Amino acid sequence: MPAGTGLLMTGTEGATYVFPLTSGDATADVSGNKLVGVTKDTDLSTLTDGNSHYVYDNDVFRLQNTGTIAANKAYLSLPTSDTDKINVSLGGATGIEDIAADNEDRGTWYTLDGVKVNEKPTAKGLYIHNGKKVIVNK
After folding, report:
1. Inter-CA distances, 41 with 2, 12, 38, 72, 121, Å
2. Dihedral (C-alpha) 49, 33, 6, 29: value to the nearest 10 degrees?
3. I need a labelling partner for 48 at 20 to 30 A (CA). Which of 3, 17, 117, 129 fits?
4. CA 8 to centroid of chain Cα atoms
């Protein structure tokens, strides 16, 4: 893998994995890789590529165009869109090939009394959604 290439690896917590180093001229073709690796702390607000930047957080890539990416981490750099979250399927993948925007509303809604609502509420009011208070004004 060429230096500076972003990688996303999955595994079992607590397990030990060994990645042997190789030498020679052979390198992987990473021309389609959308991940950008950083070797030093990088301020996202200083990037001038005109793209949106997504950082991996709790099994999804979330839009983050400000803040700092720590050294030896990676972020997705994609053409600017109005999507704030991206789901990536890692099942058997050797790289990130297909990316789909997730504009779907996920999570359970509750009234302040703790009553579960089957779908996103349409009635005005204050609700609990994903552990946060949400005001519905429609």
Report:
1. 19, 27, 7, 8, 42
2. -130
3. 3
4. 11
Q: How many helices (H) and strands (E) does the chain have?
A: 0, 12
Read off the pLDDT of residues 28-84 as tens digits, 9 standing for 90 and up: 677 777 788 888 898 988 888 888 888 877 667 788 878 888 888 888 888 776 566
pLDDT at position 93 over 50: no
Q: Which helix (H) or strand (E) holds 59?
A: none
pLDDT, tens digit (0-9, with 9 covering 90-100), for 99-124: 555 555 567 888 888 888 888 888 88
For residue 6, the number of C-alpha atoms closer than 13 Å in the C-beta half-sphere is: 22
Please report where in the chains the tokens 């946060």 appear, as a residue: 132
Q: Which residue has the tokens 């552990």?
A: 131
CB 52 within 8 A of CB 46: no
8 A C-beta contact, residue 64 and residue 129? no
